[in-house]
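Why show two proteins at once? Because comparison is the fastest way to build intuition. When a single record is shown, students tend to memorize it. When two are placed side by side, the eye starts asking what differs. So, the first record is below.
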Amino acid sequence: MLVLGYGARRFFNTKKRQRPRGGAARVRTLFDPLATIPYPADWLRAQTGSRFDTVAAALRVVLALNEEDELIVEPDFLAVRANGRVTPIDALSEGYRSVFVMTVDIIRELLDHWGNLEQAQAVVLIDELETHLHPRWKMQVMTSLRRVLPRVQFIVTTHDPLCLRGMDDGEVIVLQRDDKKHIQKVEDLPTISGMSAEQLLTSDYFGLASTADPGTEFALARMAGDVARRNTFGEQEVAPSDAAMEVVRRLVVGNSQSEQIVQEAMVKYLEERERRSGSALATLRADAVSAVIEALKAD
């Protein structure tokens, strides 16, 4: 099985035109931050006829080019014509260049082993896919790559929820370190389809308690917790100021005891989620929901 690997620094060297032979060279940028991808100009110029058309069609999809846009390959000039402008590859944005060079490199290796891209099979590893990419590209890059390379298995890491666009349930794996520094897979992840970027960030995929400013988030959490928590006599332990109560009312923290029970459970859940990791996260949400139900029954 052909295996290709690309690290977070997907740079190219215009003086490097050929990749050394062997499997290690195909994954070197994953492990060596100074390693570069071969510059594709000479290889692209060598492609003619239907083979060049195949490469150009694939690049058109991945680079999100319109019908009137085109790839320009001349003896001493490599450029993209897009939106009526001709831009040399070297002058493109960092993200555009990295995707262009990486995609050509993948296609180059596949066509060396297979007759066409539709049947080509390989495993492609990409670290930190989102590096240098515009948000619009982050949302479509994986869908585009899988469209032009349908039988290639991509294994990709990312810290950006936008890169999960186009993924199906079961295709995303979350790994975390537990208290003993062991890597564990998070189980029972929520359904990913239809989730917004903010929902993804605050779900178990990324584990943020909120997307608010961290200082504001902490202050509001403390405030909400003070309002919701009660002592053993059922009395509020802290009496917030009128201004604090006004903020809490806007946040719909809750004016009834039932609402405060839900708020208290939510605060405890978020606090506990910060301390748990790995498989322990799988049951935390269910335990929190059960606790709320039992508390409401007893209310």
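Second record. Ask yourself what differs from the first in the token line.
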Amino acid sequence: MRDVSYAPRTEAVRHIGPLLLQAQDLTATALVRLTSLYNSAYTDAAGSRASLDLLASVVSSSSLAGTDLAHELLANPYEGAEFAGHPADNEAVRTARHAEALPKMSEHLNDAVHQLDLCATGCRYLAHGIAENHVSAQDHRPPAVQQTTGAALSPAQYDALTALAAGGQLYESSTRGLGVTRVATQDGTRVSIATYRALAKRGLVCSDTGTSLFQGQKITVTGEGQRALAEPRPRAALSTAASTAPKAAAAQGVRR
């Protein structure tokens, strides 16, 4: 493990403060990426669960690194005026305080470095895993997805696909909090997240997972989706009750 340290007092605050903010920013970025991937069609890719677990570990390690840096700032011996009536520390007392704080600060900083090393390693493996496991072409989809791709769309799915072809976005709802993903279409057609996920699972649509859900991920209708739209709109199936009602009425008329 690398041994790093900063001198107590002003130097520690000047150097550790920006590092703490960067660690918190890393945690926020990793969390947004985790949410985006988990709410995308990537979850259907073989091996995606391991990548999601790995990205969650990056969130955890970066958060722990931020905590370690915050503890180092807490251990830093600050200089300031005492309350009225209390004598100020002399040089010997200040030297003793610094000597006591330095090992604690070094330990927290080394722990932070260790956690950030884990983040870097995790990100490298994550990038490799996504490159290996993320599949977009029809030929590389799992068999279950290939079988469902050719199935007929329902009228609601066809209408949703038509609306998304004109433009749409995935976004994080600002009214219900983190974790509620919604679909917005350019023409105002209402598309449920369940319908979107059904279309995405069949490879008919995809979203730009490189963009945060808070900013809005652009939805694209794939080539397979365009071919589905080239087919006539499916008809709504008649319900069993509606189709049997005339027959039942006719039978009653005959009995009379």
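One difference worth noting in the second protein: The longest strand covers residues 168-172.
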